[in-house]
Write a structure and sequence with these properties.
The structure is a single chain. It is built from 14 helices and no strands. By secondary structure, it is mainly alpha-helical. It holds the Pfam family NADHdh.
């Protein structure tokens, strides 16, 4: 992939560095938007299969044009701003919801050396930028000047903050054993060790020694993105559609784009931090971006599988799981990993 991009880099890089940076941004965002659109189709197809239904199959061959039809429909729908709403903040809410989920991709490595900004504090940047998403939800709920959106936004804010804490503690374990905030270094460190030397690379990835943290991170990622069974933010029987009640057209669509973009972001981060990123699971197969794509697709399948399987949790159960189960478990495991690294039984020395 680097060889394919090298002629373009040679053409734009030395003369127009700003244009070359813009080309790289478009090369990331354009496929991401296509992936988001077709993730909605994949979700409907996968859940249809699990529930013994057909799923969308009318628009285009095998229903492949359904996301385009949905996009065109939303594009031509009227954007209605409630008369009592704060118009500026009402429009700003969806923008603040989707902007962090797009900006976070600046530091995601797709292959060795294939990253937009290979900064040393990449993981810190991710934590900072993704924590901004909650502001879009709160502003959208408050600016609507309506009770249901405000209640939904308060629920969303509490849930997102609660599970960010447990995700943060899970990441501390990854930082301890990787000794780096650079995402490329974190992936590279997973390709070293006794199992990697034996050609069993998948046993040297972080998921095995940090298995409890891997499970906590995946479940917290589902809750953080407000996906079922943690989707009480838009519990139809309670708060209608949560903070999105008053939105229509493309402002409504931006919240859904943000949700699905966050699903892909959490999945690719899980692959990078715990599943070896672009590294091959066995020594006789070459590393490459295709491994990262396959691992990300597997985590996304878990998101869809959870939605098709579990009923919606009660709100107090969600809060109890976050604060009384996940945070104590992650705190204990941080201590266990720290002691393990300092002991003679350390596998990272």
């Amino acid at each position: 992939m680097e060889a394919m991009l090298q002629p373009v880099a040679d053409f734009f890089g030395p003369t127009w560095p700003a244009v070359w940076t813009l080309v790289k941004i478009v090369a990331i965002i354009a496929p991401l938007m296509i992936a988001v659109a077709y993730l909605t189709l994949a979700e409907r197809k996968v859940i249809g299969f699990m529930q013994v239904r057909i799923g969308p199959n009318r628009v285009g061959p095998w229903g492949l044009l359904q996301p385009i039809a949905d996009g065109v429909k939303l594009l031509f729908k009227e954007i209605i701003v409630p008369s009592g709403a704060n118009k500026g903040l009402f429009i700003l809410g969806p923008i603040l919801a989707i902007a962090p989920s797009l900006a976070a991709w600046a530091v995601i490595p797709f292959d060795d050396g294939l990253v937009l900004a290979n900064v040393n504090a990449g993981l810190l940047f991710l934590l900072a930028i993704t924590s901004m998403e909650v502001y879009g939800v709160i502003i959208a709920g408050w600016a609507s000047n309506s009770k249901y959106p405000f209640l939904g936004s308060m629920r969303a804010a509490a849930q997102m903050v609660s599970y960010e804490v447990s995700m943060g503690f899970a990441l501390i374990c990854v930082l301890l054993i990787s000794a780096s905030l650079n995402l490329t270094d974190i992936v590279t460190s997973q390709g070293q060790g006794r199992f990697a030397d034996m050609g069993l690379g998948f046993l040297s990835w972080n998921w095995l020694p940090l298995l409890p943290m891997f499970v906590v991170y995946v479940i917290s990622g589902i809750a953080e993105t407000n996906r079922a069974p943690f989707d009480v933010v838009e519990g139809e029987a309670e708060v209608v559609a949560g903070h999105m009640v008053e939105y229509s057209g493309m402002t409504f669509a931006l919240f859904f784009l943000a949700e699905y973009a966050n699903m892909i972001l959490v999945s690719i981060l899980t692959s990078v931090l715990f599943l070896g990123g672009w590294l091959s699971p066995v020594g006789f197969l070459p590393d490459g971006f295709h491994w990262l794509a396959l691992k990300t697709a597997f985590i996304l399948l878990l998101f869809l599988w959870a939605r098709a399987t579990f009923p919606r949790f009660r709100y107090d159960h969600i809060m109890r799981l976050g604060w009384k189960v996940f945070i104590p478990v992650t705190l204990v495991w941080v201590f266990v990993v720290a002691v393990w690294m300092m002991s003679p039984l350390s596998i990272w020395s």
